[in-house]
């Protein structure tokens, strides 16, 4: 029975994560069909404090739950499937909290309803989130969100060893998922004060999170990753001059 529970838990967590990410992507763009968005609304009392707390909660959850010390203390004796699914589920719940509780700060920096800036920023929005989505499959999308771990439990398969992969976008930048996410957060034809605050906060979290993640990757993959880090930019590809 346990294997069926773990697979069901993994599947439910994965679907919850996909729903939360889809809503977040739609939320940060001024879609007319969306019943709620990040931009509209006048400034609300204590909005800055609440919004900062929501961003901090998201960052703390992502960073702390990913640390080996946290896993050893709170997931001792638990399977890799349970750990991955719990992390995925809590991440999704943090996103839902942001979407539910976020308060507008009031004020708009710019808003384009048509023209080249509207078209260009919209194209970047699609391109950024597209890069992030495709990049998850270039490593292992279902492993990243915990579904493969649950499937292995269901089928009685062993957990594979961590291995280094350098393909697709990863040949040109070390963290294309985060690259696409940053582009998707900032590329919008309407930038309110609240949207700016959210983008700044998430950018800060992403940069700090990448520093912590890379330390873990160096410990896990060793020299191979050190060479990769030396040769490949972190977020944005560069053009190398021919010798």
Question: How is the topology of this model organized?
Answer:
Blueprint: H1 2-27, H2 47-66, H3 68-74, H4 80-101, E1 108-111, H5 115-139, H6 141-144, H7 147-155, H8 176-186, E2 190-192, H9 193-221, H10 223-231
Helix pairs in contact: 1-4, 1-7, 2-4, 2-9, 4-7, 5-8, 8-9
Structure description:
The protein has ten helices and two strands, in the order ααααβααααβαα. The protein has about 240 residues and is mainly α. The chain has a two-stranded antiparallel sheet. The model has no long low-confidence stretch (mean pLDDT about 90).
Please tag this protein with its features.
mainly alpha; 2 strands; 243 residues; 67% helix; globular
Strand content: under 5%
Number of strands: 2
Order of helices and strands: HHHHEHHHHEHH
In angstroms, what separates the terminal alpha carbons? 62 Å
Question: What is this entry, summarized?
Answer:
The chain has ten helices and two strands, in the order ααααβααααβαα. It has a two-stranded antiparallel sheet.
């Amino acid at each position: 029975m346990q294997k069926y529970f773990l697979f069901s838990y993994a599947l439910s967590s994965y679907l919850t994560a996909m729903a939360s990410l889809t809503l977040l992507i739609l939320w940060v763009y001024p879609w007319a069909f969306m019943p709620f968005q990040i931009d509209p609304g006048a400034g609300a009392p204590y909005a800055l404090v609440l919004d900062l707390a929501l961003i901090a909660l998201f960052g703390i959850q992502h960073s702390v739950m990913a640390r080996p010390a946290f896993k050893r203390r709170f997931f001792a004796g638990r399977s890799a499937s349970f750990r991955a699914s719990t992390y995925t589920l809590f991440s999704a719940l943090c996103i839902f909290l942001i979407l539910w509780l976020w308060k507008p700060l009031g004020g708009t920096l710019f808003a384009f309803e048509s023209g080249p800036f509207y078209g260009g920023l919209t194209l970047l929005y699609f391109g950024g989130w597209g890069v992030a989505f495709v990049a998850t499959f270039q490593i292992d999308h279902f492993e990243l969100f915990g579904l493969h771990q649950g499937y292995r439990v269901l089928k009685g398969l062993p957990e594979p060893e961590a291995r280094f992969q350098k393909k697709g976008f990863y040949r040109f930048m070390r963290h294309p998922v985060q690259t696409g996410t940053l582009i998707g957060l900032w590329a919008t034809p309407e930038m309110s004060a609240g949207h700016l605050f959210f983008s700044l906060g998430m950018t800060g979290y992403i940069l700090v999170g990448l520093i912590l993640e890379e330390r873990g990757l160096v410990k896990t993959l060793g020299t191979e990753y050190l060479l990769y880090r030396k040769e490949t930019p972190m977020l944005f590809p560069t053009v190398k001059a021919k010798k």
